Amino acid sequence: MSSSTHNSAFLASGKARFALAVVFFVFPSALGAQAITIDSQGRIKGDPSAPVDRRYAQIEQTHVALGNSVLDPKTRIELIRLMQAEQGFAMRPLPRGHKGLLLVANGKVEPAGEAWLAMVTANGLSSKPGDRIVVTDLKVDHNRIIFDLNGGPDQKHRLLRHIEVGGGVAMTPVVRDDGQEPVGSRLTLVFEKNIPELTGSDVKALLAPLISFDVKTPVQAFTDTLPPVLKSAILDHHVMVGMSTDMVLFAMGQPESKTREMDGQMPFEEWIYGKAPKPVEFVRINGNRVIRLEIAKVGEQPEVFTQDEVSGLMRTDGTPLEPSRTRTVAMGDATYNPDTQAAPAPPSLKKPGEKLPDTGVGDPNDEMKPVQFPKPKPDAPPATLPANLPAPTPNPQPAPASPSNQL
Prior knowledge:
Helix content is about 20%, strand content about 20%. By secondary structure, it is an alpha+beta fold. It folds into two domains: about 5-160 and about 180-220, no CATH class; about 225-315, Beta-lactamase Inhibitory Protein, Chain:B, domain 1. Residues about 1-35 and about 45-50 have low confidence and may be disordered.
């Protein structure tokens, strides 16, 4: 089988598997469950207005000029030497697992959308956006380049770890197992036919949507994966309600102090930045998100922010991550000016515009009167025993205990 035929069959099988996954999620009624389906373009099937997490949406295709000549052995060795142990920053969540992500040169990434998120959920997250990664292994095949990142997703010496040598009872394993699970990821760069003549810069440009090899600080690498509003806030050292703890640490650094408290049944952490007379910021965190921000300045009323401003920015359509289930309730009764305003209406169980049924007693539109509780009845006299029952005998006195020691 030729390389082009093999490559076409591989891509066709990949599309078939992805189409099967889409069918699985599109028709959940047959399985008795309901799920949200996101196609490879990052759109939700059947609900275009539904939110999509931008981190798992389809990438923007690159436009790197590729020649028609085939990669020769000398250039192959040079390419391996240049990319081996190269360091960069993750631009998208990279999952663990043997399969990993497949990136078509100047094309799209597979899987994308719901399948990408499902892979991260099933296998775990190897690197989140902004994390530093290292190319620890590199394999060049006839039409693809396989990158193992941060040690790769496979156990080292998978067979030798189970082989022991020695004599008698003294057996020594050929390779000792340290017991640690691999935490790396795998990324496969696939070309249409054969691998053309490439330089290290060309490979880095093709991988740019997923891995950035530019010289950056960790803050720059992390903020490059965020929307402009969040990027400006972090670089300007501002905290916004809805930020994750990583965003707060990149924006403000480690807090000067932390406290753990309870608000009803909800535990939270209070991160405190600054000391008087400078402004002091109290960042309240529940789980992994900022839920409240209070800025206290000397001689001024504290500013309190509770409105989530970040969740909508992390969606491709600008909608919040989850519908808000909280509302602000003013403490105390409603106040009014008795000289210019009428007193507020008393509480009522009626709906606006509702009329009570006519019961024949009074005006049916009158407000409900106070509840009248029934008057308590007098206590019943104590019950008397029948005359034919014998009177109860008093409890007999216990016999005195004999001394334990007899003289």
